[in-house]
Amino acid sequence: MATPSVKTSDQSSRSKEPTKTNSLPLATRRIAAWAVEITLVVASGLVPFGIGAYANSRSDLDRVPLNPLLVQTERAIASPLALPISYGTRNVASPTNLLWTIALLAPLTVSGAQLYLLAKTGATPAKHRFGIKVVNAEGKPPGFKAVLVREGLGRWGLPMSVAYFLWRNSFLFPSLGGFASLAVIMLVLEAKGLPWQQDRRALHNTLAGTYTVDDSTPLTVQSQGDGQGSQSFESEKDEEDAIASIVITQELPRQQSKQRQGIPQNPNYTVVGVAFFCMSAALAILVGTQIYVKILRNQQVTEQSNNQQFLALIKDLNPNSTATNNQRQKAILAMGTLNDAQSTQYLVDLLSKETDPILLQTIQQALVNVGPNAIPNLKRMNQFLTGELEPVKGSKALPPEVLEKQLQANQYAISKILAVYNGQTNGLDLSNVSLSQNGSEQSYFNLVLDKKDLWGIKFKSANLSFGSFKGSRFRGVGEDGRWDTYDDWIADLSQARMRQANLTEANLSRVLMVRTDLSRAILNKANLSNARLTAANLSSAQLEGADLEGAVLENVSLTGADLSDAQLKDADLYAARLGRVIAVGTQFSFANLTKTDWQGADLTGAYFDHANLKDANLNATRLTKAILRSANMENANLRNADLSFADLQGANLAGADFQGAILTSSKQNQTEQFVQTPALGVQSAVVEGVDFSKVKNLDPKQIAYICTQGGIHPRCP
């Protein structure tokens, strides 16, 4: 049978003059087309995302919860890339939701359209522009199956999987820069082809059986012999020169067939292999079944033994029993070693009924021996007793003082377990429990968990008021042993009551504290970086030297709080209430302070450079020596504010209200205050080059000062 061959039509080729773009080497055009394709996909997402981020920074737009689709996508991306935990439940500007959703869907649409065109026509718009085409062995468009293998598996799937595996198991983890570097290296190696390949075709073309050809050179098919034919097209072997070509023939299958015929094959090998596999599988099933049956038997024996011991111990703990206190103590401790559901429940019930102080301590010790497994039962009893003490819900079956003592015993048991099993309580659910003082002196309880590892505990809606957590850690590194990754153990303190709690030097970084009541709490030098404190109550709290960098404090109440020397760089305090706050030397650089209320606050020496103070209420604030360089103070209320010694260079003051604002120190000699330009922050406000042309309610003295100190105003000579 004659071998079909294909020749290029020289006449047609000569009749078509190459364009400037198509005169470039094939390899260069392939890279350029690929770069354009990627740029289109990336730009389709970045452009709406950037516009959405800008809209989110506007203060005049309504705030709505983040789209659930975006929340789930964010979490899905954060987990494999080991990014910090994503809370999701945050508010954004209303147009931002739409724009960010478009930013998510647009790249999928653009890439899907490119794949469709590649499958149906063999070229995307970028490939068509650069005169290249992808075809199969017959010279036709590759089709959907080949395109999915080519792009999904060959070009992206395998290289990215290898890069990800190397990244997760190397010193580069969790650096995203390291992963990006590995990904680029893998993509380059994939594009260059395997070293042992003669033609060095790219892996994605090899897997899909496709070829990248020069579309500007017409291809013709010639039939010989039996009429079968094939096309010739440029190979990727010598793409740099864009000269070499390969000829697809039917001889390759014959050669492969001959090679296969040269391999000795014996059907007995197959039979032996199948038999060996079947015997191994049967043996594995048999051994596994025996082990499973043995485990079940051991469990049954253990349960029977525990039941017998449990029934025997109950006899000594029966109220009508004649057992001595010493015997009862031994029975209680023995029951704590059983560590099964019925014994734990019995101990919790006994704890709420016993009145003997010595036996109460023994029961608590037994529950500590049970460990965190006793927490669910203790939690249910805690909630029941708390409900009984409420004036409205309680049934008042027992006097309040009795209920308070029972609750106190329960609280001590929970606190002892948390203290003893320090750092082993990740995932523990203590939501809605009451670990606060009960009120009366007879049942006084004081929660002390200083320098404890409380990471990963769910304290949602728990009452932890007056508790002491000095130096405690509410966040851990997680199983991978690295900070700022998705598996970090982070406590949930949302809606918890922590009034007057002592959290000095506590690690609350990235902890969820939405609507948490921290009024009058002590948080000096606490680490609250990137914590989520949306709508939290921090009124009169002490936050001296606290780290709140990047924290989310939207709609938070900080009225009367002490923020001296605190770090709030890049923090989001949108619409926060900061009346009468003390923020001497506090760092607010680059913070979002839109619509904040600072009336009567002491902001001496505070740093507001590049901060957004648009629509902020700074009425009667003390801004002496404050740094307001390049701050956005558009429409800010600065009535009666003391701006002496403040640095306003580069600030945007359009629409700001300066009625009664003090720009120069009252102690300065009145005869010289408009004569000499002050040095930076030495005598009076630095306004050189600051535009006051759109500032409202300036009086003649203020304008005179602005003009003499280099400020800009229409009335300046």
From TrEMBL:
One of its Pfam families is: RDD
| Highest taxon, organism lineage | Bacteria
Q: Does the keyword Transmembrane apply?
A: yes
Name of the protein this chain belongs to: Low-complexity protein
Q: What keywords would UniProt list here?
A: Membrane, Transmembrane, Transmembrane helix
- rRNA processing as UniProt keyword: no
Q: Where in the cell is it found?
A: Membrane
Look up and give the membrane topology term.
Answer: Multi-pass membrane protein
| Region named Disordered | 1-22
Polar residues bias spans: 1-12
The UniProt record lists the RDD domain at: 25-205
Q: Known Gene3D superfamilies for this protein? A: E3 ubiquitin-protein ligase SopA
InterPro entries with a match to the protein in the record: 5peptide_repeat, Pentapeptide-BTB/POZ_domain, RDD
**What sections of the protein cross the membrane?**
31-55, 98-119, 171-191, 269-293
Q: Which organism is it from?
A: Brasilonema octagenarum UFV-OR1
